[in-house]
Design goal:
Blueprint lengths: L1 E5 L2 E4 L4 E8 L7 E7 L6 E9 L2 E6 L7 E6 L4 E6 L8 E9 L1 E4 L3 E6 L1
Length: 116
């Protein structure tokens, strides 16, 4: 399984970015998809996850991004998205997508930089 992330970049505080992560390879049944981030000198932390049960998606968010970030998935495209609004300088980090299909598979990371 390979994950390709896109959508990172430099944005001013208050701006928006949309991250995408497309999975390819042997895709059988993805149980969960999510995003983590790691800022310089800090541990990797959960941003948001999304799981599917039938036609219903369940999203979970870190308190620091609730109300500003929205995670979604397109199962037909094996893709997970992270819409980030009202960005703050403290959101600056490398963002990693992860999918769970038996094991966890990680993307290579995409840099998000929010200037003040």
């Amino acid at each position: 399984v390979q994950l390709v992330e896109s959508g990172g970049g430099l944005v001013q505080a208050g701006g928006s970015l949309r991250l995408s992560c497309a999975a390819s390879g042997t895709i059988l049944s993805i149980s969960a998809m999510g995003w983590y981030r790691q800022a310089p000198g800090k541990q990797r932390e959960l941003v948001a996850t999304i799981t599917s049960a039938g036609s219903t998606n369940y999203a979970n968010y870190a308190d620091s991004v609730k109300g500003r970030f929205t995670i979604s998935r397109d199962n037909a495209k094996n893709t997970v998205y992270l819409q980030m609004n009202s960005l703050k300088p403290e959101d600056t980090a490398v963002y990693y997508c992860v999918i769970t299909q038996g094991s966890d598979y990680w993307g290579q990371g995409t840099q998000v930089t929010v200037s003040s």
